[in-house]
Specification:
This protein has 639 residues and is α+β, with helices and mostly antiparallel strands. The chain contains 21 helices and 14 strands. The chain has a four-stranded antiparallel sheet with strand order 3-8-7-6. Strands 9-10-11-12 form a four-stranded antiparallel sheet. It is globular and about 75 Å long. The N terminus and C terminus are likely disordered. It binds alpha-D-glucopyranose.
C-alpha cells in the first residue's frame, strides 16, 4: 500500500497526459481515504478534480474521485461542496475531514481516534437468549405463556438488531447483513447492504433512534460520489452501492494506529456483477421516512443531499432507447440479485422507482435549476402509473381478454399492443387465478408477459399507490385467497410459482442456489413481512399482516432468524440460508411496531395525488383502445 503523499503527486503530474490516454495506469491503485487532515483536504480534492476527465479510461484506476457536474440538472460545484460538508472527526458520523488516495479500491478512510475504538458486534449466543437472559423459545407459545414469549421474541430481536450494528469512527453507520456464527464463509454477508438496512433503519426510526439512520444516509451519499469502474467501464454517476464494508487498516506511517475505511461495492465485486439499481431508490425512500419520522428536515434540505437526490433521478430519467416509461434494467438488479429471468422491466424496480419519484418530489427544493428535472419527473410519474395499471394488471377478466387476443396488429390502436400470443398464458395460472382478486405481473416486454407473482413489487405498488385503490384491494384479496401458497408455513414467498425442470435450467442458468422453491426461486423470505404490513395497514386491512406475523412467530426465533425458507410450504430452513439474517430480524420488528402504531406507516406510504388522478383520466380518454384522434395530430408519419 503506498502512502497518499506518494500517490497523489504522481496522479497530479500524470493529469495532462491522462485525458486522452489509452494505457491504464497500473500504479493508480488508488484508494480514497477520508482523513483528519483538514488543511490538505481541499488541495487533494482539487488534485482529484483535475483527474476527473481521464478517470474513466484508466484500468486499475478505480473509483477515482469525480467532480463532474450533473449536466442539465445541477452544476459543477456539487462534489466539492459535498466534500466540505461531510467529514469524519470521530464523533460526528456525517463529518468527514480530508481526502487522500491510498491503495486502489476507492475507499473512504477515516482515522480512528482512540476513544472511538471499533466496537465489535457481540456474537449472539446460539439458542436465542433475550436481554433478560432467558432463552427465547419461538414455537412454544401457548395460551398462558404466549404474551411473555412474544415479548421475549421481540426483546431477542432488538438485541440481535443492536448486535448487528456496524460502527465507523465509533459511530453507528448501518447493520451487517447477517451475523451467523455457524457459517464460516461470510462472502459479503459481513457488509452493510443498502436494501437490507431499510427495515433496520425503519425499526430504529420507529424506536426514536434517529442517529444511525442519519449517519447511514449521509455516509452512503458519500459513496455515491465515487467513480467506479468494471474493466474500464463506469456505470452512471448517481449509482448507489449495493453494499459497503467498514475495514480497519493501519494508519499511514504509524504502526500503532488504525483508521476506518468505507469500502463500497457497486456490483463490480458482486456475484454476477449485478447492478444495484434499487439502492438509490431505497435511499430516497428512507430519506423521506427519516424526515417524516424525526421531524428533522435539515438533512433532506442540505445541498449535498439535494444533489444526491438529483443525481439518482437524473440517472433514472435519462433518455435511452426505451419505448416504455418503465425503467429498463438487467437481471438481478434488485432484491433478486441473481439471474432469475427478471431483466427488462421487472415490477419490483418499477414500484420502487415510482415510490422514489414521489418521495423525491416531496423533498426537492424548488429552484430554477431543477425545473427541467421536476418536469421530467412529473411526466414520468403519470406515464409510469398509466403503463403499470393498464398493462401489468391481471385478473380473471383480463386473463380472458388475453386468451382471446388477436395478434400481429399493425396499427396505432392495437388492443394487443405488445403482441402477446395467448398461448403464453401458463397452465398453472388458468387454475390459480382466483375469481376475486388480481395482481400485477412480474414483467412486460415485447411479446412477453412474465406472469409470475412477485411479492415485493406487488406490495410496494400498494404502498406507493402505483396500483389503484381497487387494484390494491384486489391484490390483498388474492393474497388471502392464495394464503396456503404465498404464506403457508412461513411468510412470504418471494415469487410464485417456482421455475422447474427445463425452464429452471434455461432461466437461471442451472443455478444450484435457485433450485425450485428455494432462495429467489419461490423461497419464503421473512423480511417481506414488513412490506406486507405496510401494504395491509395502508389498505386498512391490518388483520392480514397480523395473521402472517403470528405464523412467523411460531418458528422464526427458534429457527434462528433465517434468511429464507425452502419448499412449497416454506417448511425447511433454506439450504444455504444464513442464520441471524438482520433483515429477517428487522422486518419482524417493523411489522410489530407498525401493527402497534399503524399511523406510523405513513412515513413510508405515498398517497395518490389529485393531479395524478386527473392526468390519468385524461390519458385514459386518449387510450388507443379508443379510436386515435387524428384531428389533434399535427404530424402524421407511417414508416
Ligand atoms: C442476497 C439477497 C439480497 C440481499 C443480500 C444480503 O443476495 O438476494 O437481496 O441484499 O443477500 O442479505
Amino acid at each position: 500500500m503506498g502512502t497518499s503523499e506518494a500517490v497523489l503527486p504522481s496522479l497530479s503530474t500524470a493529469v495532462p497526459h491522462l485525458s486522452h490516454s489509452k494505457p491504464c495506469l497500473n500504479s493508480l491503485n488508488s484508494m480514497l481515504h477520508l482523513k483528519s487532515d483538514i488543511n490538505s483536504r481541499r488541495k487533494r480534492a482539487l488534485g482529484y478534480m483535475r483527474l476527473l476527465n481521464c478517470s474513466r479510461m484508466l484500468r486499475n484506476c478505480r473509483r477515482v474521485y469525480s467532480i463532474q457536474g450533473i449536466d442539465g440538472f445541477s452544476h459543477g460545484k456539487t462534489k466539492i461542496s459535498r466534500l466540505e460538508s461531510v467529514s469524519c472527526k470521530g464523533q460526528q458520523a456525517e463529518s468527514v475531514s480530508g481526502i487522500t488516495a491510498e491503495d486502489g479500491h476507492g475507499t473512504i478512510i477515516a482515522p480512528k481516534i482512540k476513544e472511538f475504538e471499533m466496537v465489535e458486534p457481540m456474537r449472539h449466543e446460539k439458542g436465542g437468549f433475550a436481554s433478560n437472559g432467558k432463552f427465547a423459545a419461538g414455537g412454544t407459545i401457548n395460551d398462558t405463556l404466549g404474551k411473555a414469549s412474544i415479548d421475549s421474541i421481540e426483546d431477542e430481536a432488538w438485541n440481535l438488531l443492536r448486535e448487528s450494528i456496524v460502527f465507523y469512527c465509533g459511530n453507528p453507520i448501518g447493520t451487517i447483513a447477517a451475523n451467523d456464527p455457524s457459517n464460516s464463509s461470510s462472502l459479503n454477508y459481513d457488509q452493510v447492504f443498502i436494501r437490507d438496512f431499510i427495515p433496520s433503519g425503519i425499526a430504529f426510526l420507529l424506536k426514536g433512534e434517529y442517529d444511525i439512520v442519519r449517519s447511514f444516509i449521509l455516509h452512503t451519499l458519500q459513496l455515491q460520489s465515487w467513480e467506479k469502474t468494471m474493466d474500464c467501464h463506469s456505470p452512471g454517476q448517481g449509482l448507489m452501492p449495493a453494499s459497503f464494508k467498514v475495514r480497519t487498516v493501519p494508519l499511514d506511517g504509524d504502526d500503532s494506529a488504525t483508521e476506518d475505511v468505507l469500502d463500497p461495492d457497486f456490483g463490480e465485486a458482486a456475484i454476477g456483477r449485478v447492478a444495484p439499481v434499487d439502492s438509490g431508490l431505497w435511499w430516497i425512500i428512507l430519506l423521506r421516512a427519516y424526515g417524516k419520522c424525526s421531524g428533522d428536515l435539515s438533512v433532506q434540505e442540505r445541498f449535498d443531499v439535494q444533489t444526491g437526490i438529483k443525481m439518482i433521478l437524473k440517472l433514472c430519467l435519462s433518455d435511452g432507447f426505451d419505448m416504455f416509461p418503465t425503467l429498463l434494467v438487467t437481471d438481478g438488479s434488485c432484491m433478486i440479485d441473481r439471474r432469475m429471468g427478471i431483466h427488462g422491466h421487472p415490477l419490483e424496480i418499477q414500484a420502487l422507482f415510482y415510490s422514489a419519484l414521489l418521495c423525491a418530489r416531496e423533498m426537492l427544493a424548488p429552484e430554477d435549476g431543477s425545473s427541467d428535472l421536476i418536469r421530467a419527473l412529473n411526466n414520468r410519474v403519470v406515464a409510469l402509473s398509466f403503463h403499470i395499471r393498464e398493462y401489468y394488471w391481471i385478473d380473471m377478466r383480463k386473463l380472458n381478454e388475453i386468451y382471446r387476443y388477436k395478434t400481429e396488429e399493425y396499427s396505432y390502436d392495437a388492443v394487443n399492443k405488445f403482441n402477446i400470443y395467448p398461448d403464453q398464458i401458463p397452465p398453472w395460472l388458468v387454475e390459480w387465478m382466483p375469481s376475486k382478486g388480481g395482481y400485477l405481473i412480474g414483467n412486460l416486454q415485447p411479446a412477453h408477459m412474465d406472469f409470475r407473482f412477485f411479492s415485493l413489487g406487488n406490495l410496494w405498488s400498494i404502498v406507493s399507490s402505483l396500483a389503484t385503490t381497487d387494484q390494491s384491494h384486489a391484490m390483498l384479496d388474492l393474497i388471502e385467497a392464495k394464503w396456503s401458497e404465498l404464506v403457508a408455513d412461513m411468510p412470504f414467498k418471494i415469487c410464485y410459482p417456482a421455475f422447474e425442470g427445463q425452464e429452471w435450467r434455461i432461466t437461471t442458468g442451472s443455478d444450484p442456489k435457485n433450485t425450485p422453491w428455494s432462495y429467489h426461486n419461490g423461497g419464503s423470505w421473512p423480511t417481506l413481512l414488513w412490506q406486507l404490513t405496510v401494504a395491509c395497514i395502508k389498505m386498512n386491512r391490518p388483520e392480514i399482516a397480523e395473521k402472517a406475523v403470528k405464523i412467523a412467530e411460531k418458528r422464526i426465533s427458534r429457527d434462528k432468524w433465517p434468511e429464507y425458507y425452502d419448499t412449497k410450504q416454506g417448511r425447511f430452513i433454506g439450504k444455504q440460508a444464513r442464520l441471524f439474517q438482520t433483515w429477517s430480524i428487522a422486518g419482524y420488528l417493523v411489522s410489530k411496531l407498525l401493527l402497534a402504531n399503524p399511523d406510523a406507516a405513513n412515513i413510508l406510504v405515498n398517497r395518490e395525488d389529485s393531479d395524478l388522478v386527473s392526468a390519468f383520466s385524461s390519458m385514459l380518454s386518449a387510450n388507443p383502445r379508443r379510436k386515435r384522434d387524428w384531428k389533434g395530430l399535427k404530424q402524421k408519419f407511417i414508416v
